[in-house]
Amino acid sequence: MLHPTKEELFSILASVHDPETPAVNVVEMGIVRDVEFSGGAVHVTITPTYSGCPAMKVIEDDIVASLRSAGYENTFVATVSSPAWTTAWLSNSTKQKLKTYGIAPPQQIPEEVILLLPTIQETVPCPFCESSETEVRSDFGSTACKALHYCNNCRQPFEHLKEI
Prior knowledge:
Elements: H1 6-13, E1 17-18, E2 21-25, E3 32-38, E4 41-46, H2 56-69, E5 75-79, H3 92-101, E6 103-104, H4 111-114, E7 134-138, E8 146-151, E9 157-161
């Protein structure tokens, strides 16, 4: 029986990419909250990025498959919703990966402003040309956690991972 460290388990889980945004993995996205080996089994705790996220079942199946392919047959995944996932958990390198992929990353917003988000129309810089001459085309993009924007400068459509 293998007795992995937490770091080894996180390394295995880093091979699981977000099916909706394959430029980043589930560890970088903060979906994987914790992982531990106890009682001869791997226990993984995950949190959805968005309430009702349709990708969670695929993510759970991919997590189990990655751990089993690494030799850990007894794997359990628990989904928790508290505390709720937040874009504040994304590192600068993860935000850069999103930008490189063509998704405008969430901006850092002061905590006191978060309560006002539904009333604030923010300018989202274009991930392709960095112009601030952009506009929202739809509050929802390919997924509920993204909004569809358009750049009036380079004329590229792009998605923006909403601040949550």
